[in-house]
Inverse folding.
């Protein structure tokens, strides 16, 4: 018997063949099918050509869920323990190639820790042409110029500050920065409309972040990520 699903989820999943998708969700995952929608407890999944490619689903008994999926003909991956998000989790793919993450949280007592010392990060990204980089971050990526000189640009957006520094023998190659944001899809739409070098649509990852990658004119990597349920 399949254990209950415990957290509300509503997703539009990508499907070229909704009938094939819904058959899998009914026969292997135990969902009730209502047209092109699969429903089980608080989880509602719909299928369309331009939908997402992943969904995270919580269950009350992860081991029983995986065993039931195997018994019903599915091929879930082994269970992994993700300490940084306090989840046990496994993945399974549907016939349309969508990834489903089934997870269950676990509780461990927090370790005593000293008062926090680090408060904020200030990434530095190397640039051959600092002035051009400053203009790009201002006009395309939505940053404000805090300070600028020939070999330095101090750029602000909301609570984030980053430095654009001159490329030197000490600062070669490319840099990278990771930003936690409020809405990945909204920022993706904004940056795409402004002509940013976006490297693909936002993708929901198994570690609980929906993220996408942007390259600046110097090749520096900017990854933007939103937490999701």
């Amino acid at each position: 018997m399949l254990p209950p699903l415990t957290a509300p989820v509503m997703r539009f999943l990508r499907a070229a063949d909704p009938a094939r998708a819904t058959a899998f969700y009914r026969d292997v995952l135990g969902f009730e099918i209502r047209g092109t929608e699969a429903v089980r407890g608080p989880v509602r999944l719909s299928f369309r050509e331009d939908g997402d490619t992943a969904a995270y689903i919580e269950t009350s008994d992860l081991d029983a869920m995986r065993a039931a999926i195997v018994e019903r003909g599915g091929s879930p991956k082994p269970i992994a323990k993700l300490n940084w998000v306090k989840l046990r989790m496994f993945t399974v793919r549907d016939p349309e190639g969508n990834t489903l993450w089934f997870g269950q949280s676990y509780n461990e007592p927090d370790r005593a820790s000293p008062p926090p010392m680090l408060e904020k990060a200030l990434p530095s990204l190397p640039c051959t042409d600092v002035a051009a980089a400053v203009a790009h971050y201002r006009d395309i990526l939505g940053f404000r110029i805090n300070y600028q000189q020939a070999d330095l640009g101090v750029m602000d957006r909301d609570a984030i500050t980053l430095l654009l520094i001159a490329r030197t023998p000490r600062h070669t190659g490319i840099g990278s920065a990771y930003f936690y944001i409020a809405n990945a899809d909204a920022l993706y739409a904004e940056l795409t409309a402004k002509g940013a070098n976006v490297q693909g649509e936002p993708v929901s990852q198994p570690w609980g972040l929906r993220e996408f990658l942007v390259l600046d004119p110097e090749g520096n990597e900017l990854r933007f990520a939103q937490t999701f349920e």
Observations:
- The chain is about 15% helix and 40% strand.
- The chain has a mean pLDDT of 91.
